[in-house]
Design brief:
single chain, Nucleotidyltransferase, domain 5, 5-stranded mixed beta sheet, 8 strands
Length: about 325
């Protein structure tokens, strides 16, 4: 290109819309459409089985929407790399990597929709589809010093027009809720930064014991507040337990055992969630997972990791980037 033509091109960049600038950046960085398609196909290459009957006997069966189709020799059904995943039947797959970057930056639905050039309802649907297939808590085994505590979130039933357990809140009225109307969440974190969370309808000894047992390794030291539920769990499982009873003025035991790391994580979590102006309770687990990924994954890898998880049908091979 001639120098004068290049100068004219640069002078026109200011007139581009935000979406046009985004597409230009993706084109310069290596064609986002191709990258998204490659990630989709590679997710199937790691699985190599029919999503309908899990047979490994299949053959190529043409192509559709830029994706290779296959036909199973056992059940005779056809499928592609998206069949059976949480992103199946969604459109605009060329924008999925861009949207994953929006999730990595923690952007709101409206901002994500503007960047991708999609409708707000589509951006909302994508957010929860992308969060459905992330790492389950059962794979997050705790080691070393483990901190555990409960926290509570405001119950939200936005969009539910048939409330049965309480009266609907009126705009402008007080949003103060009773303890029974708040949503309890068990938060567990070890000193290496591994986090697990469990959403309950109510705090109970049986549920907390069951959740803690599923994530504890053989050699751990449990740190908690004065709640007797953790004391009985440690006694039943015969693991060391350190109680930090703040009402007695005790914040650290033996200069190392405390729950300050977990409390700091909970504080960051709740501060981050204020940008969403109230999270619907039925989607709370998705937001907890979202924040957990932002805390534990390198930001340069996170966008591809989120997309791989959404495509991976929880296959262990696809959890590694």
């Amino acid at each position: 290109m001639l120098r004068n033509d290049f100068k004219n091109l640069l002078s026109q960049l200011d007139n581009l819309t935000h979406l046009q600038k985004q597409k230009l950046t993706e084109k310069i960085n290596g064609n986002a459409d191709k990258n998204s398609t490659q990630l989709i196909e590679s997710s199937f290459d790691a699985v190599k089985r029919c999503p309908h009957c899990e047979s490994e006997l299949f053959s190529r069966w043409g192509s559709s929407n830029e994706l290779q189709r296959y036909r199973c020799k056992t059940c005779t059904k056809t499928f592609n790399a998206l069949t059976g995943s949480s992103l199946s039947r969604l459109r605009y797959k060329e924008l999925w990597l861009t949207y994953s970057r929006c999730l990595t930056d923690g952007l709101s639905i409206k901002k994500s929709a503007n960047i991708c050039g999609i409708d707000v309802t589509t951006a909302f649907r994508w957010r929860h589809r992308f969060m459905e297939n992330t790492l389950p808590n059962t794979e997050q085994e705790m080691t070393g010093i483990v901190e555990a505590d409960e926290t509570f979130f405001t119950e939200s039933c936005k969009g539910n027009k048939q409330l049965t357990h309480r009266k609907a809140k009126k705009r402008g009225k007080s949003t103060k809720q009773k303890r029974g109307e708040r949503v309890p969440v068990l938060m567990v974190r070890d000193r290496s930064g591994t986090v697990a969370d469990f959403v309950f309808e109510e705090v109970s000894k049986r549920e907390i014991h069951s959740c803690l047992k599923s994530i504890m390794s053989e050699e751990v030291v449990l740190c908690s507040d004065g709640n007797s539920i953790y004391q009985t769990f440690a006694k039943d499982e015969k693991i060391p337990h350190k109680r930090v009873v703040r009402n007695d003025g005790i914040y650290v035991v033996d200069k190392i055992f405390h729950i300050q790391n977990l409390n700091a994580y909970i504080s960051r979590l709740k501060t981050w969630m204020t940008r969403f102006n109230g999270v619907v309770t039925k989607y709370l687990a998705n937001y907890l997972t979202w924040r957990k990924l932002l805390e534990t994954k390198d930001k340069t890898e996170l966008s591809e990791f989120i997309l791989q998880c959404a495509l991976g049908r929880n296959d262990q091979q696809l959890m590694r980037i």
